Amino acid sequence: MRVTISRKAHFNAAHRLHRKDWSFEKNDAVFGKCNNPNFHGHNYGLTVSVTGKIDPETGFVLDVKVLADIIREEVEIPFDHKNLNLDVPEFQDLNPTAENIAVVIWNKIRKRIQPEFDLEVVLNETDRNFVTYKGE
């Protein structure tokens, strides 16, 4: 019997969608207003889900407090109220699209979750736009 537990979190961050190897014109054509040289921000919503077998001793798949601490340490502290392009090392050479942010978050959390558990990250960039990543 496998069960999924989920924890929601949020963070506020600025970013700019921009490729350094493209001209301003090409960046503008592909990324539009998201290529604003002065950046723009989002109130990101995050749902992290862990699927696994219930531990017969604790009754937990994973203690939600443990998951909350991992999210706080790996995502909220390093990303909240930051400029992703300038302040977060993972995005120094990686365009911080919602897709790339979700993959980076998944990788950061994955290293802290036991391998027998499945991990899914859902990142809401807006109320209508979100990305789901479950690993490769």
Automatic annotation (TrEMBL):
Keyword match Signal: no
Enzyme class per UniProt: lyase
Cofactor(s) named in the record: Zn(2+)
What Pfam families would the database entry show?
PTPS
Q: Which UniProt keywords apply?
A: Lyase, Metal-binding, Queuosine biosynthesis, Zinc
The UniProt family comment states:
Belongs to the PTPS family. QueD subfamily.
**Name listed for the protein in its UniProt record:** 6-carboxy-5,6,7,8-tetrahydropterin synthase
Task: Please tell me the species this chain comes from.
Answer: Flavobacterium procerum
